[in-house]
Every structure is written in C-alpha cells, then in structure tokens.
Design goal:
Structural class of chain A: alpha+beta
Largest sheet of chain B: 5 strands, antiparallel
Shape of chain B: globular
Helix content of chain A: 25-40%
CATH topology of one domain in chain B: Enolase-like, domain 1
Number of strands of chain A: 5
Distance between the termini of chain A: 35 Å
Number of helices of chain B: 11
Largest interface: A-B, 30 and 28 residues
InterPro entries (chain B): CO_DH_flav_C, CO_DH_flav_C_dom_sf, Diverse_Substr_Oxidored, FAD-bd_PCMH, FAD-bd_PCMH-like_sf, FAD-bd_PCMH_sub1, FAD-bd_PCMH_sub2, Mopterin_DH_FAD-bd
CATH topology of the largest domain in chain A: Ubiquitin-like (UB roll)
Low-confidence stretches of chain B: none
Strand order of the largest sheet of chain A: 2-1-5-3-4
Structural class of chain B: alpha+beta
Pfam families (chain B): FAD_binding_5
Number of strands of chain B: 12
GO molecular function, one term (chain B): FAD binding
Distance between the termini of chain B: 50 Å
Radius of gyration of chain A: 15 Å
Oligomer: heterodimer
CATH superfamily of one domain in chain B: CO dehydrogenase flavoprotein, C-terminal domain
Strand order of the largest sheet of chain B: 4-5-8-6-7
Strand content of chain B: 15-25%
Keywords (chain B): FAD, Flavoprotein, Oxidoreductase
CATH class of the largest domain in chain A: Alpha Beta
CATH architecture of the largest domain in chain A: Roll
Mean pLDDT of chain B: 96
Shape of chain A: globular
CATH architecture of one domain in chain B: 2-Layer Sandwich
Order of helices and strands of chain B: EHEHEEEHHHHHHEEHEEEEEHH
CATH class of one domain in chain B: Alpha Beta
Mean pLDDT of chain A: 97
Organism (chain B): Bradyrhizobium manausense
Chain lengths: ~160, ~270
C-alpha cells in the first residue's frame, strides 16, 4: 500500500491505496465523489475527465499514486452545495447540452479546460476540434457545442474559474 | 491490472539504480500507453519507476543550432512551446495532433519514443529530422535507435533524457488519422535538411517507422511535389488490416508525401 496526500476540490485529503488504484477509482470509491464517471475505461470517451493541476486529464488513465502531492478538481468542486451553478454547468442546463447525462461531468470539465486555454470567444470549429476526446451517445453534440460557446462567454463575467 | 510496487525517484541516477535493482521494472512518465496495456494485462511489470517528478527532465530549449526537448516534455508543452514553434513549427504541429487534448496533457516525447509504436507520430519526426536521442548512458542516432516493432536500442537500465533536433531548412508533417483511435493510419514527415532530404513514414510499415529512399533522392534534386509523380511506393512490407490494405497505405504514402512537400514549401 502507498500513502498519498493531495488536494481535491480545495480540501487536503489522504489515502492509503494499492499502487494500481486509478485516480478515478480513488475519487469514486475512497472519496465517494461519484460525479466523475467511468465510460470506456480506455482513455477515449472522456467521461472521467478531471483537472490535475489545472489541466484536463483522463482519470481512468492516471494512477492515484501519480497524483500524490498534486491538486485535483472534479465536477463536484465547481460550485458549492446550494450555491448557484458554475456558469458552464448553467449553460449546459440552459442549452439542453445533455440527455442521459453520463458524459456531462467530463464534457463540462473539458469545456472549462478549453476556456482556460483558448479564451472566452470560441467558434464552433474550435469547440468541435477540442471535444475530440469526449464522446456523447445521445445529443449529436449540437447542443453541447452551443452550451460550451455560451458557457465560455458567461465565464468571462463570473468569479468562478 | 496486476500488483506492482511504485517508485518515485528524484533524479535520473536514482531512477537508473531502481532499474538495475529491480528486474523487469518499467519506467512510467505520462502513462498513456503503459497504463492501458497494464489494464489489459498485456504487461505486468512488478515495479513502476515514475519519471514525471524528476526536475528539469521536461526542459525545452535551444542549444547552439539544435532544439533540445527533455524526455518528460508533454505533447501539449511541445505543441504550444514558443521555442519549438519558432525552431521547428512542423514538430509543434505534430505534437498538437497526438491523441486528444487530455491525452496531450499527460503523454511525453520520451515515452512515445521508448515505446516505438508503429503508428506513433514522434518516430517519424525523429527519423526525418535526423535527431539524436540522448540517454543516461550515450547518444543514439535515430537510425540506430528504432529497431522495429515496439523495439529500440535502449538497454534494460537505460533512460532517455532528451532528444536533440538539428534545425531543418523546411519541414512538414501530414497525418492521415484513424478516425477512432487518432493514431496515424499513415503519417509522413518530410524534412529538407542542409545536406539532404529525408522522408520518414509512420503507421504504414509492418516493421515500424522507415524512410523512402526513392522519394528522398528525387526531392534532393528538386524539392517540389512534382518530382514525386510517377514514383510508386511498393506495398510489400506494409501493414494490412481492417483499417486499410497495404496497397491503400502505399498509395497514401505518395499522396501524403506530396502534401507534406507542398506544406513545407508553403511555409516560406
């Protein structure tokens, strides 16, 4: 077993894990943060995307021990319980950017990463290119793209990053 | 995934010692090939040595007339590096086409080269640009480094520390992606170097990355896509699978090389 300590959604956490524990397993099973999903489990679908030191990564392809000493943000860390949603979450709600919702946490974490790297004015082409690593089997992407464009703009006026 | 012990060395020397001490230990940096392979139980190393926390191993800088990229530089870092963009824009472009954004935040150049996947992108750039692979023990020329499918000249306790790219006069990489995996069905890197022209092909060869002599000779005389017309690449020795036949891949090599030459010439 390996001792790890990291910051998750702003809070210091520790764990005693088998080194083969994936980051997504640690988040879901040890910390009960079940907003991060496992879809394909082969680093293709993006349902497991979280931010590691501020960058979108696939938590199904990251070992929890490799995150030791680092900072992780999950979908649960975007807005406090009972507080208004993060502008990107609100944009997905407003623009009907989901149907079954399984891919949504990963989509939103990826969307916020896109805004961090590419700014608040995103054209459809950029968004579609950047969504290469996130699969949705319901929406046909149209409303996801619309949600991200709107969420990116809304983030410019928000305190939530 | 089978059990393993995890090690996090602080220096390359410590990492090398761990490799010597622990038989069948594997290096990990981004983990974007190794972790999936371990999940499938195709690999079961008893020890993992994590290079990703070794300071200074991801440095990207110009040294003399060479672009030097540290082994743990991530694809996203190479793709967006101003130094790479200035020195060899084709290399930045290549790095930005690997996988998807989240994969590029983790995968490293050293990991890609050490794995030598026959459909990976970096091997084409390293071979075409005539790069030198620097390890904790020696310097290896690209030609001696790649030794066929998933095999390299690296010894069991050898660690890639950096890759040195001499600057080409012109270069371009054109990739025909597999739509599902984003790996290269065929990728061609063309480099016009001060003394010669090199054309390196990934994705197509059943023995990994290779150069196309006939194209290189023609392009050395005149660096124009026109000189390639009428020169065919034989399908012999190329991959054939559900994604494309050897003949199709042979055809793509010609098409992509012409596009790469045009792209390299357009950058003036």
């Amino acid at each position: 077993m390996a001792k790890i300590s990291l910051i998750v959604n702003g809070n210091p956490v520790t764990g005693n894990v088998d080194p083969r524990t994936l980051l997504v397993q640690f988040l879901r099973e040890n910390l009960r943060l079940t907003g991060t999903h496992v879809g394909c489990d082969t680093s293709q679908c993006g349902a497991c995307v979280v931010h590691l030191d501020g960058k979108a990564v696939k938590s199904c392809t990251t070992l929890a021990v490799m995150a030791d000493g680092h900072e992780v943000k999950t979908i649960e860390g975007l807005a406090a319980d009972g507080a208004p949603l993060h502008p990107m979450q609100e944009a997905f709600r407003e623009h009907h950017g989901l149907q079954c919702g399984f891919c949504t946490p990963g989509m939103i974490m990826t969307a916020i990463d896109i805004v961090h790297r590419k700014g608040h004015e995103l054209d459809d082409h950029t968004i579609r290119e950047e969504l290469e690593g996130n699969l949705c089997r319901c929406t046909g992407y149209q409303n996801i793209v619309a949600s991200i464009a709107a969420g990116a703009k809304a983030m410019a006026k928000s305190d939530l990053a | 995934m089978y059990e393993f012990k995890y090690h996090r060395p602080g220096t390359v020397r410590q990492a090398a010692n761990l490799l010597v001490k622990n038989e069948d230990a594997k290096l990990i940096a981004g983990g974007h090939t190794l972790i999936p392979v371990m999940k499938q139980r195709l690999a079961s190393p008893p020890h993992l040595v994590d290079l990703s926390h070794i300071e200074g191993l991801n440095t990207i800088e110009m040294k003399g007339r060479s672009l030097v990229i540290g082994a743990t530089a991530r694809h996203a870092e190479v793709a967006t590096s101003a130094v790479v963009g200035e020195a060899i824009p084709a290399l930045a472009n290549l790095a930005g086409q690997i996988g998807d954004p989240a994969v590029r935040h983790k995968g490293t150049i050293g990991g890609s080269l050490a794995n030598n996947d026959p459909t990976a992108d970096y091997p084409a750039a390293v071979l075409a640009l005539g790069a030198t692979i620097v390890t904790n023990k020696r310097r290896l020329k690209a030609e001696e480094f790649f030794q066929g499918l998933f095999s390299t000249a690296l010894e069991a306790d050898e660690i890639i520390t950096k890759v040195m790219f001499p600057l080409p006069k012109k270069a371009a990489y054109i990739k025909f992606r597999n739509q599902a995996s984003r790996y290269a069905l065929v990728g061609v890197f063309v480099a016009r170097r001060p003394s010669d022209v090199r054309v390196a092909v990934t994705g197509a060869g059943s023995d990994g990355v290779f150069r196309v002599d006939a194209f290189e000779e023609a392009l050395k005389k005149r660096f124009s896509s026109k000189v390639l017309e009428g020169i065919d690449v034989p399908a012999e020795g190329l991959n054939s699978d559900i994604h494309g036949s050897a003949e199709y891949r042979a055809h793509l090599i010609g098409v992509l090389t012409r596009r790469a030459v045009d792209a390299a010439n357009a950058k003036e």
